[in-house]
Amino acid sequence: MKAGNYDLIPLPNSMVQSEGRFVLNDKCEFIVQKGLDSKFTKVAEDFAKQLNLTSGINVKVSTKAAKKAASNTITVVLNKKVPAEGYKLDVEKDKVLIEASAPEGFFHAIQTVKQLLPAAVFGKTLVKDQKWELACAKISDAPRFSYRGMHLDVSRHFFSVDEVKKYIDVLALHKLNKFHFHLTDDQGWRIEIKKYPELTTIGSQRAYTMVGKNWGSSDGKPHGGFYTQEQIKEIVKYAQDRFITIIPEIDLPGHMVAALASYPSLGCTGGPYKVSTEWGVLDDVLCVGKEETFTFLENVLTEVMELFPSKYIHIGGDECPKVRWEKCPVCQAKIKELGLKADEKHSAEAKLQSYTMTRIEKFLNDKGRMIIGWDEILEGGLAPNATVMSWRGMEGGIEAARQGHDVIMTPGSHLYFDHYQSLDPREPLAIGGFSPVERVYSFEPVPAELTKEEAKHILGPQANLWTEYIESEAYLEYMLLPRLAALSEVQWTNADKKDYASFTSRIGHIAEIYDAMGMNYAKHIFEATPSYAVNTEKGCVEVTLKTIGDAPIYYTIDGTEPTVNSTKYTAPVEIPYSCTLKAMVDRKNMKLRNVEKTFSFTKSTAKKATLNTTPSKKFECNGAATLVDGIRGGKSYNDSWVGFQAEPMNLVIDLGENTKVKSVRLGTNSAKGDWVFPPKDITVYLSADGQNFKEAAKLVLPEAQKGDKDGVNDYTLGFAPTQAKFVKVIVNNVTSMPQWHGGKGKAANVFVDEVCVE
Q: What DSSP string describes 266-295?
């Protein structure tokens, strides 16, 4: 890091830069004002220890009566006017003064100090021949939101104590203060409960794990693990030392199959149950008609509260099918006993869930705690004091805020870090969706629809990291970073200070910090990002390449690997025929992947195309142009796929002149667990004038079966060679998914990537 660099993330809310640098050396002293909480001293000592490890500088920490900094000192003093999590930092050439009203504010100040230093200060080894200087500045800073959260699912895949600590370290770097610890689910119970030992002897182990998105498959490897209560205490203390509160989640009454496998009597059918080896929403849930179930939940939550001092306990409440309750005589008897009746909005079973959440809330409230639940807890009536975590969009959060409930915004559209962060087909498997760094950064947690009073209920945003496909620490970090940097600025920095161009100009230093910490971060933001447009006049596909900063881009279209001697990118690249475009960004100190995109031209490529039906809003890509741009779809549904659900695909391609055609080929995607099915049927029509179409071929597909393999399928419809100027292709989606599917009776999506006319 060069001297005078102010590349801080999250961006402080007030910073005035000045000339000069404060030089750290063995004569420096760190003074903690006498009388401050001992936590102040611990923060200072931890910083001095880390600085000594990486720089060899022996900065001594002492406690003295001090109101301002003396020469060659870093001094922290109490200023009760500073917000609890805020701080003031004044770096001058000969001294540094830090003002805070609470230890957490001082801790955040130290994170800023460390970012002003060379990135090596975050490492684990001594670095020689390095200048240890702080750029001079006056900073006055405090967070925008009181709740700044990050989630981790350890149920689908278990992560060790050390891995969780490293996760907490990187949250602290970014000034987050809440860690949502998702500890239980259908695929594993991860916390020791002494009253119910079989939750871990049975519930923490699954026999195997499905492979990729192939339901019914097995990797043949048992998977398990759990945290003892002593380990939980260790993790909680570790987070507390970094001023992060851990909010535990015990998901109920759904997502409880691991508990049912351990104690079958808690279910409606009595089992047998097994810890789930597959992902998705399962019909088996807790039987809330039984008092035994509430005894179990209260005993479990009592032990959880003994381990986690958090004001909040997360009790889930999401994705709880009611099919077992509908047929369970005990649950139906409870519905009758409570006098629950269906209305135009909610079923009696939905109201039974509301009863469950309200009852558990009262139990926790009586113990001095409050509940958080996913936004499904709005259904059937919201528990009186519940905080809502809005994940299915902003609507649940808006509704809850209008009802006077506190809200944490965590919509899947922007803040699900298990989504793809790049459209590169070489990306490792993710659950779906597309949430790149820029999309995360663009998120505004406070909806414009809310009044000023209603907006006060928005506590802050949180991102979620579910781990169905994340098997290792390296992949966990890859999905987290640098999206966490974007999230931190959404959480901390005032809206009027946010600027994506500024953010990208500063992100290089945080990448150096990740390197020093040994973190495996994604580098897409430093690579070239392509976008595509069909130019029908020129009969080509135009490729625009962008990257952050002023790093040069070089490319080839002859299949060779680009170098700094290849053509330099200065304007959109015109692709007029089948070829492979490869592009590189020249960043001297960073190893990056090249862009690589293959174009396959047919008679329909780069021709005028019109959609007569409307794609799904979330999956429209570039509309009709996507279907004739010569590019095959990738793993993410946002990568050159156009999705249809409410209507079939009705595409008309104008070939420009009468052309002899004999076949149409198109590619579709299938991911049945995501409600993406093969087509119901495909029909091709031909026309000379664009008005009168005649059917040329039709393909009716067999109904998809549960065991069918997911993935990309190509369908070719051949016919006798015919002269035609217009080709119409209609692809009908499955309008009623089969009984074996979780979305039975509802319309499936159909995804198409390219329509190739030959």
A: GBSS-------SS-S--S--B-TTSHHHHH
Largest CA distance in the chain: 95
DSSP tag of 392: S
Average of per-residue pLDDT across 26-47: 96
Task: Name residue 687's beta-bridge partners.
Answer: 726
DSSP result, 287-321: -TTSHHHHHHHHHHHHHHHHH---SEEEEE--S--
From 73-82, 324-333, 635-644, 698-707, the region with the lowest mean pLDDT: 635-644
User: DSSP assignment, residue 7?
Assistant: -
- How far apart are alpha carbons 284 and 262 in whole angstroms? 13
Q: How far apart are CA 40 and CA 103, in angstroms?
A: 5
**Can you list the positions of beta strands (E) in 488-578?**
529-535, 540-546, 553-556, 567-568, 573-575
**CA 493/CA 110 separation, integer angstroms:** 17
Cβ(312)–Cβ(246) under 8 Å? no
Catalytic residue numbers read 185, 255, 319
- Candidates 648, 643, 628; CA nearest to 752 is 643
Give all strands (DSSP E) within 127-190, no chain letters.
133-141, 149-153, 178-182, 184-185, 188-189
**Which amino acid does the sequence have at 258?**
A
Q: What is the pLDDT of residues 278-316, one digit of tens each?
A: 999 999 999 999 999 999 999 999 999 999 999 999 999
By DSSP bridging, strand 419-420 and strand 649-670 are unpaired
Q: Is the pLDDT confidence value at 3 over 50?
A: no
Q: Which residues pair with 534 in a beta bridge?
A: 541
* Span 415-435, pLDDT tens digits: 999 999 988 888 999 998 899
Per-residue pLDDT tens digits for 515-539 = 999 999 999 999 999 999 999 999 9
Model pLDDT, residue 2: 42
User: Partners of 529 in the beta sheet?
Assistant: 546
- Return the HEC string of 638-672: CCCCEEECCCCEEEEEEEEEEEEEEEEEEEEEEEH
Answer yes or no: are the C-beta atoms of 72 and 95 closer than 8 Å: yes
**651: its two tokens:** 């595409």
Residue 551, SS3? coil
Q: Answer whether 694's CB lies under 8 Å from 620's CB.
A: no
Give the pLDDT of residue 635. 76
Question: Residue 591: CB partners within 8 Å, gap ≥ 6?
Answer: none
- Check residue 4 and give its pLDDT: 45
CA distance 594 to 526: 11
CB 84 within 8 A of CB 53: no
Q: Which residues contact 570 (CB under 8 A, 6 or more apart)?
A: none
From CA 715, how far away is CA 633, in angstroms rounded? 15
Please give the span between the terminal C-alpha atoms of the chain, in angstroms, as a whole number: 56
Q: Is 208 exposed, middle or buried (0-12, 13-18, 19+ CB in 10 A)?
A: middle
Q: Which of 565, 561, 572 lies closest to 595, judged by CA? A: 561
* Per-residue pLDDT tens digits for 614-665: 999 889 999 999 999 999 988 777 789 999 999 999 999 999 999 999 999 9
Average pLDDT, the chain: 95
